[in-house]
Design brief:
By secondary structure, the chain is mainly α. It is 45% helix and 5% strand. The chain contains three helices and two strands, in the order ααββα. The termini are far apart. The mean pLDDT is 80.
Length: 114
């Protein structure tokens, strides 16, 4: 120890006050150790879990309740003009031929070549 650092001298009364303050701080339980805090954290955790599971449960229970049945049968076809194009292999492709061979035809038009 250097000469500037000195151990402070306490009288008996000051030491008793320090001991009393130490005992008071030791006897108090922290907020995170209380029963109320534990119940509150359990409640908040349960709310979070329920909020995450509720949409999943609703989707499972709602499922297919018959409202979606028959939607595929109501599809309407739009008449399109027949045309012929050249594919990437320089073969001619006619729309009417493709519609005859396939139930669904998807047309992709690019700006320029591949």
């Amino acid at each position: 120890m250097s000469e500037n650092e000195q151990i402070p001298d306490y009288n008996e009364r000051e030491l008793a006050e320090i001991d009393e303050l130490n005992r008071l701080s030791d006897s108090k339980t922290q907020i995170t150790q209380s029963k109320l805090w534990k119940r509150l954290t359990t409640f908040v955790a349960a709310i979070i879990v329920l909020s995450l599971l509720l949409p999943i449960v609703v989707l499972i229970l709602a499922g297919n309740d018959g409202r979606n049945e028959g939607k595929d049968s109501t599809l309407t076809t739009i008449p399109v003009p027949d045309f012929e194009l050249i594919d990437t292999d320089n073969n001619r492709v006619r729309l009417s031929t493709e519609l005859g061979n396939n139930s669904i035809v998807i047309l992709l038009f690019y700006r320029g070549f591949f």
